[in-house]
Amino acid sequence: MSRRIVVVTAGLTVPSSTRLLADQLAEATTAQVTARGESADMEFIELREVAGELATFMVTGGIPTPRLTELREQVAAADGMIVVTPVFNGSYSGLFKMFFDALDKDSLAGTPVLIAATAGSARHSLVLDHALRPLFAYLRAVVVPTGIFAATEDFGSHGLSDRITRAAAELAALVLSQGGYGVGGFAPDLAARPRRTSGTKVAADVTPFGDLLRGHAGEA
Amino acid sequence: MQFGIFSVGDVTTDPTDGRTPSEAERISAMTQYALKAEEVGLDVFATGEHHNPPFVVSSPTTHLGFIAAQTEKLLLSTSTTLITTNDPVKIAEDYAFLQHVSGGRVDLMMGRGNTGPVYPWFGKDIRDGIKLAVENYHLLRKLWREPVVNWQGQFRTPLQGYTSTPAPLDGTPPFVWHGSIRSTEIAEQAAYYGDGFFHNHIFWNKEHTEQMVKLYRRRFEHYGHGAADQAYVGLGGQAFMASTEAEAKRVFRPYFDNAPVYGHGPSMEDFTEMTPLTVGTPEQVIERTLGFADYVGDYQRQLFLMDHAGLPTSLALEQIEMLGTEVVPVLRTEFERRRPAHVPSDPPTHASLVAAGPDAPHHLVEPARARAEELAQQAEVTA
């Protein structure tokens, strides 16, 4: 079974060093998944291309454009994610945050995520642990232990590719170990619960109204 | 099929001349729209309810009573009545009173409100929005159907030996719609009671509207009120018309670009593509509107938003005139032509509900209760 890995990249220019890092992470992850006898499909989401649609989504109180609906469904169906943002004023870029603000709050639950950021200087390196990690913790994603921070000077060093390999190996291991919570019936089966939602579909199963009315029918 | 207009009652600056109407002018304009609606043969005028600027529509029964006095046939409705923050006891009284003064020309659409602060202003918590809608509406049903009500719920002070006055006209409560853009619980509520479901339809993509209406229809059948395609569906719609498409776009664009809700967002072309908004000729509006039934099924009520975003009164009146004289007559014929015989053309009216007699399910507080219990038992047996 091939695993779907969605790569979200929030670089603003073309070419972008953020995209360059995203490509390297995707390649390394593919190699690590392949090394374990499985295959991975990398699906790239360039946030720059939907910047206008994200702004529209925000200012219209969440009216989804067809393209955003597709992206939200793509994310909710991913087996793993690689997310890369440039650092602006000590944090992820606004474009990056807008995308995750546009997702359903359950769309990343339990999903392995590799976090990465690019910046001009190593002074921003704590952005991974002060900004990205809390964001994905809130979304109940599983963030891999190694985050990748690349300052401009890192693109001329050997250490970066070692770290990329390590992070990719961690992500691959998490992606491939998903599902299967042991012998059925002995513990609550979390995997059997409704998994993640993209927020783009009306739920097919509804709570019967009798249950909604319970305690509210006012029999004095 | 019923056709009409619905307003949200926003006071918005006209972007073409920078002029903002006073609240008095806006209220007077809305009255004129209602009178124009009757004059050109539309069936329904519905007003929103809001308790915050830039809206003026805080007191729908006052306004609808004033309109009732000046009209003969027009059906007066809301779009929507806040079932969450209003006292259901006051809703029961106010709308029964309006039934009496208007000769039964009243129905209501229930909704939950548009902004968070409205809840605390009225002593409520927005996190209870759905629960409030469930409990308050149930109490409202009882007040309209039981002569003496004893009540203890979670949200309102208890009632002992309370009789709502006046009783509904002819002992027959008004028909109720439940309006919701995306809460499945509200579609379920409408289905449970056999009430109508209204999708505002103007801000969202049709795929979403389709899913919400399908859910309501499926559950309407589930609770034994009839077949899914016989459920009572109402839709919103939005149009701006001129003799040519280019002219309609030229005139409407500044209003679109600065409109509340979607202004400063998508382009008019993108929004037209994504939602039911049609900016063009009456023929284009007809074609688009007929297409709504392709994805929600044959339905019973179509309301159009024609008066927002700062459109001057004269322009809005022209639009209502075109709607009534050029668009709706064709829609009536064409919708009837495609409608299967077993699907009701109109939603229930006061006359049809009175004619159905006092033993009709409409007079029960919980018309689906027996059916729901039976279904729950079946589920237990199979489990």
Automatic annotation (TrEMBL), chain A:
This is FMN reductase. InterPro entries: CE1759_FMN_reduct, Flavoprotein-like_sf, FMN_Rdtase-like_dom, NAD(P)H-dep_FMN_reductase. Residues 4-154 form the NADPH-dependent FMN reductase-like domain. Keywords: Flavoprotein, FMN, Oxidoreductase. It comes from the Bacteria. The keyword Flavoprotein applies. It holds the Pfam family FMN_red. Gene3D superfamilies: 3.40.50.360.
Automatic annotation (TrEMBL), chain B:
The lineage of its organism: Bacteria, Bacillati, Actinomycetota, Actinomycetes, Propionibacteriales. Keywords: Monooxygenase, Oxidoreductase. This is LLM class flavin-dependent oxidoreductase. It comes from Nocardioides cavernae. Residues 1-21 are annotated as: Disordered. Pfam families: Bac_luciferase. SUPFAM superfamilies: Bacterial luciferase-like. Residues 1-294 form the Luciferase-like domain.
